[in-house]
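User: Could you check the structure of this?
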Amino acid sequence: MHPVEAATAAPTLRQRRRAVAVQEILSAAECHIVEHGPHSLSLRAVARSLGMTVQALYHYFPSRDDLVTALITKAYDDLADAVQAAVDTAHDTAVPRLVVAAEGYRRWAIDNPERFQLIYGAPLRHYEAPADGPTTQAFRRMSAIFEQELFRGLTTGQLDTADTPALSSALREHLANLPPDGLGTLPPTGTALILSAWGHMHGLVALEVFGHTAFIGAHQAEVFRIAMHNMFEDVHNRIPLAGPAVAAPNPRT
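Assistant: Sure, the predicted structure tokens are below.
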């Protein structure tokens, strides 16, 4: 078969059946997590809910870690889809797109607290994500959306001259050597800014999802929006209006 034909050949019946089975297993595992929490994930219980044996499930996920990795990757992808959809459908031009992205992040977390806990709660015992594996790639996809919206229209030169606390030479060197498919396209000061902004946003969402801001009641969405507006303005107030003529980092998708 010609190489091009091989690359575009339709999946075989066996491949299609396997894909369907994998999705059914993932859906059943997500239902188990929603009902019992991520730390009680049991391959035996997932298999039983599907009317299959654990041995049969192992044909699709050879170990518990393989299933957990797939679940975490899917959670990150679904979260990124929700954030991107929020940005793509935004109509209020008075609200910064970064704020819209943050609110999309918050809504998904509130609607999916157990899956949010899976990716951001206490680590599962005896589980270690594969180094630079699918979970890392899925997280980078989501973080790229926030990077793009936080620094939209800014150049690398502007970010490099941002008003931030002085970075140690060791930290600056470490940030400068991050991989290009992560935050490596940003100057160290830009990376420091986005990490601070990310921690602010994520911290507020985690506090709400885990019930620590329940005393605010029905006003939590308003408080969050105010906080995100303030954060966005603070970051941009630290960045000069003009900087050296250096091309802006390419937005990643």
